[in-house]
Amino acid sequence: MFSFFRKKPPAPPPVPEPVPAAAPAPSAPVAAPATLPAVVSPPAAPAAPPERKGWLDKLKAGLRKTGSSIATVFTGTQIDDALYEELEAALLMADTGVKATEHLLADLKKRVKESKTTDPAAVKGLLADAIADLLAPLQKPLVIGEHKPTVIMVAGVNGAGKTTSIGKLTRHLANEGASVLLAAADTFRAAAREQLAVWADRNTVEIVTQEGGDPAAVSFDAVSAGKARGRDVVLVDTAGRLPTQLHLMEELRKIKRVVQKADGTAPHEVLLVIDGNTGQNALTQVKAFDEALQLTGLVITKLDGTAKGGVVCAIARERPVPIYFIGVGEKLEDLETFNAREFAQALLN
After folding, report:
1. Which of 175, 232, 241, 339 has its CA 20 to 30 A from that of 6?
2. Same domain for 308 and 190
3. Is residue 157 a known part of a binding site?
């Protein structure tokens, strides 16, 4: 979900008032028919848009590696301690983490008791509800339009899919009617500028780049250019780094300070791209980057290639930074907004 400035649609043309028909000549009175109650059909439940349904099918397929081992726990005939022990092991193997696993098991047992459920298959549905409620605080829309330009700084370690995610995010924004300017501030990696330039070309957007330039200077120039050109969004691609590389983490802080000099209210969003394959290491990255940059949102990629998608629950329990987008593929359209209930249901499908 995005919020953009949009032109109001034109008002429909006025409908002319009907001309009253001439009164008929008086005739013998006729008995009025009996009044019948109006029959109103109940409104049909809104169907998911075709593109969203296609995404949900991809999400189910993408989370199959993570969810299959959890779902098999509910194929037995009894709800007993053995079932909960198997579920605990499955959740931990999916990198849900100790704290989130303990929370989910306690919540699930409470739901089972309150609903008086006796069917293990029904317990799976209750677990989906528990996961959806745990993840609900992470479901938050990326709002564009409160600032012009909205400056979005994007960080992440090398290999997480950061630059590719920026390309996909640019596509999302452009499809919603926003004008985007890219900043190639990842000047440490030789091919980063060229890779971002390819995404700029695919999405038909402008890019600010300098060969061998200082990342902070490139970011400053891009924000200044975005303001001067009236762009809706400036996306700043920063260099990939490990949170243990303290000098590089300080470079990120410098970029943030310099961006603030170009626009006193910026950056308006600080996003971290994390690779779902890394499991608990992804949680470590979230903690480290949040401490350094005060993250406002996450983009989780490559969930289709991992059995460790439970880390989303660990993040919700231990460092609840909103998840704006999740990805389950390499195509431009394979990045979508995060929905807690969709994720929970797809995980246990």
Report:
1. 339
2. yes
3. yes
